[in-house]
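lol forgot to send this yesterday, sorry. struct tokens for the thing we talked abt
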């Protein structure tokens, strides 16, 4: 999970002295990563039958938060176990999202597929790791279960 703290300096006037005294105040503020994990649908609706429809209802949404296209060629999305999706030659448009489904399908600009025959994301808790082509972790998203999806 992302945690950021911004410090602000607040000045107050001293009583009768006309002197300002600094007071530290904390607030939560964050600049979004350029490419981020936006949502993980870790529990597809209904029973886990392993059908391609069920597998594709388990997915991760990745978002480009910038105003320019970003090349994701060689980037990876993986879980704690190590199941990994590697982006082939691919550019994510400015402000757009791409959904990476667990099952099989035809890749488009908006949808990509692991081509797995069983589920990747654990319903009881897991972590999604998004790494750039150099292997540096760009974003993570964790959950403990108890639902069907999490927004990161």
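and heres what i got for the seq, position by position
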């Amino acid at each position: 999970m992302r945690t950021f703290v911004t410090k602000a300096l607040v000045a107050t006037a001293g009583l009768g002295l006309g002197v300002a005294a600094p007071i530290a105040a904390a607030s939560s503020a964050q600049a979004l990563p350029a490419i981020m994990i936006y949502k993980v649908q870790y529990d597809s609706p209904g029973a886990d039958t392993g059908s391609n429809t069920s597998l594709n209802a388990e997915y991760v949404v990745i978002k480009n938060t910038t105003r320019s296209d970003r090349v994701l060629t060689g980037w990876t999305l993986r879980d704690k176990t190590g199941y990994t999706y590697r982006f082939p030659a691919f550019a994510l448009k400015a402000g757009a999202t791409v959904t990476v489904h667990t099952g099989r399908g035809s890749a488009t600009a908006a949808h990509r597929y692991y081509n797995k025959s069983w589920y990747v994301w654990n319903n009881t808790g897991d972590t999604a790791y998004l790494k750039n082509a150099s292997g540096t972790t760009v974003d993570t998203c964790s959950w403990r279960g108890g639902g069907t999806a999490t927004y990161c």
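Residues 35-151 form a domain with the Immunoglobulin-like fold (CATH 2.60.40.1260). anyway ping me if u want another try
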